[in-house]
Amino acid sequence: MRKLENSLKDFDFIQNETELSRAAELAFSRLSFTFSREHLENLIKAALSPEASENDRYVLSCMLKNAEVASKGIYPICQDTGIANIFGWKKGNFNLRNAYSEITEGVKKVYNERKLRFSTTVPESFYEEKDPKNNLPAQISIFDEGCSLAPEPSFVKDAPEDSVSFVFCAKGGGSSNKTTFIQGTKAFLTKEKFSALMKNELEHFGTSACPPYTIAIVAGGLSPEQNLLTLKLASMGAYDSMTYEPNDQGFRDKELEELTMKIASECGYGAQFGGSKFALSAVVIRLPRHGASCPVSFGVSCSAHRNLRAVLTKEGLYLEKTVSNPADLKGFETACSQHSTKQDSEICIESTGDMSAILDSLSESKPGQRVILNGKILVARDAAHARWQKLIDEGKPLPEYCTKYPVCYAGPARTPEGKIIGSFGPTTAGRMDSYAETLMSRKAALVTLAKGNRSKTWTESCKKYGAFYLGTPGGIAALIASQYITDQKILDYEDLGMEAVRLVEVKNLPCFIITNKNGEDFYERNF
């Protein structure tokens, strides 16, 4: 019993809570609104670091304020409340006969009742899709005792008999999209070559998945599946207690983790807009492999690090603790003090439906300048852009609204009762880059708001058409919804759910110039 108490000291115990559906419901309810103490302390430490840039400190302070807003339980931490990922390990005699359906029931209930975003699409044919309006299916994997495809996390080994241990994760699309997999060979396994590979891959992560990141790297694996599952679990914190001692099951490498943090610090991206705080932590794992192959994978968990461990027993549920009031943490208020800091070079713009006036306001702007945006913006992302492209392909004009307002790529969480909008943050800009010529030539998308670096195609189109791309901090969706949005309505394509076209009114929304009308790009210029 003492071993159990020691291994689960960071868990709350809920007596008589023994149903799988309730375990899933309580876990996703907790992780969608609150962070672990360790993650918040890492953010505070980064914000207070003397090596942090001014922009690092500003973005990190916004993230901490976001955590404080989300902890009230109304606005989720991130607008992308993620695909529900559940990994479980059975120990002894625990009934899992209806595990999939029971866990699915819990996921469905919490996503509906807590107004979390429905992000899944399901195919109607190979090419056509629809929104199932329940965020299902969930990704559920449960392993019998001694049968895990990936190394077993240490907290699973310490769990009591007749139990099932879980890692619950709300995995957003942005961070999933950063996963890279290389089917390599032993040739990678020299210090020089692996270090060079790391540097190349890490610098290609870019900023579109909302750094600072938790970085995971896995080399080896008896199959691609083992490698990638280990990577996913590593990014979720499942192997934070894995040994550094070499063995035939899997171990961490301290030297390579330190190198990972050094590369991240020196790459220049920082916490999205230049600096040194590109990563909070790193996990590098070595696995056994087939002699003919050496799979290598790289992945991240974003700044919205939403992972939670749990152990379900016949007596009740052990649920990992999170912080219900971030402001109580040491250093929080000091770290947050940058949130309201004004820059001398800030540009204030008003969006009233006159695009030429907005372009004039931005005409002398330089990459990296902060912008304070007021007024109306259009909100549209992947599915809406595809609909606009279809209109163009059919020889039809774009809707008039396309040319009047800046376009923000976003898909908000569902609106809480009595509020204007759900958690609202930018999505990855690069996914819309293929529409550059099509839209800009028709005087649409001349000012866009999103996150992350963009392609040469977009940058060159900005120069050709006198357009601008503004970066909005990612990872602060609860803060934006609660403090910067004053009104919203759906304009078009309501059937697209969270991807419907909206007209949103903002007040003092912080942005940064990423690309100006001269084709000067912040990330290209600095990195």
Give a verbal description of the structure.
This protein is α/β, with parallel strands linked by helices. It has 17 helices and 20 strands. It has helices spanning 2-7, 20-31, 37-48, 54-70, 99-113, 154-157, 173-176, 191-203, 224-235, 254-266, 332-336, 355-362, 382-393, 436-440, 456-465, 477-483, 522-526, and strands at 11-15, 83-91, 122-123, 129-130, 139-143, 163-171, 180-184, 213-221, 251-252, 279-289, 294-301, 307-313, 316-320, 347-351, 370-379, 407-408, 447-450, 468-471, 485-492, 501-515. It has a six-stranded mixed sheet with strand order 1-13-12-6-2-5. The protein has a five-stranded mixed sheet with strand order 7-11-8-10-9, sandwiched between helices. A five-stranded mixed beta barrel has the order 15-16-17-18-20. Helix 2 (20-31) runs parallel beside helix 5 (99-113), helix 3 runs antiparallel to helix 4 (54-70) and helix 4 packs across helix 16. The longest helix has 17 residues, at 54-70. The radius of gyration is 23 Å and the shape is globular. The termini are far apart. The mean pLDDT is 94.
Strand arrangement in the largest pleated sheet: 1-13-12-6-2-5
Shape: globular
Radius of gyration of CA atoms, rounded to a whole number: 23 Å
Strand % is: 15-25%
- Total helices: the number is 17
Helix residue percentage: 25-40%
Question: What's the short version?
Answer:
With 527 residues, the chain is of the alpha/beta class.
